[in-house]
Input
Amino acid sequence: MFPKTWLDGRLSADVFPSLMRLLVGYICALVIGITIGVVVGSIRRLRLYVEPVFELFRAIPPPVLVPVVMLVTGIGANMQLTVIAFGCIWPILINTVEGVRGVDLTQIDTAKSYRIGGWRRLTTVVLPAASPKIFVGARQSLSIGIIMMVISEMFASTNGIGFNIIQFQRLFQFKEMWSGIILLGIIGVAANVIFKFIERRVLRWYVGMQTQER
Output
């Protein structure tokens, strides 16, 4: 049932488009969330003003904003990408702010004493020190991205995994519907494995430090 349902025509017509929307939306959330998070985390006065707003938006369940996004962007790929990115951005953004704010002042002062400033200080001191927190937010956002991908396709789409699952439900094709749910589980597991691999490579120094402390 599973190969017949998903590995024939639907693999290219539905599965790949869903994965591409997830990937693009997630990358957009990473870029925007980390960029804004670094700026807000570096400026204390700005952080005091905007952090309550971030927490407010973070508390709003992303699925309830799908109809609002549809009114702004219309129905189509733009809506789906916006929904995925909007759902993913808040854990990344808030954890980046926390990570940048928590950078050891001794490291900052040392960089200043060696006249390391601007972009170089950001890439060699601030981002590496904040990266464990950033990865925590990125991992949280990954599961949210999969959920938002499915929900956006269920609301208004003509293809995708979520679209097919809801169609199977309406046609009482429950075996096919459950095969779609299993597919989402496989995607979630695979995405988590890939994420852990990247995390271990990027945070190798941090994992080694944690191991020594134990």
Observations:
- The two ends are 48 Å apart (CA to CA).
- Residues 67 and 210 are 44 Å apart (CA to CA).
- Residues 118-155 form the longest helix (38 residues).
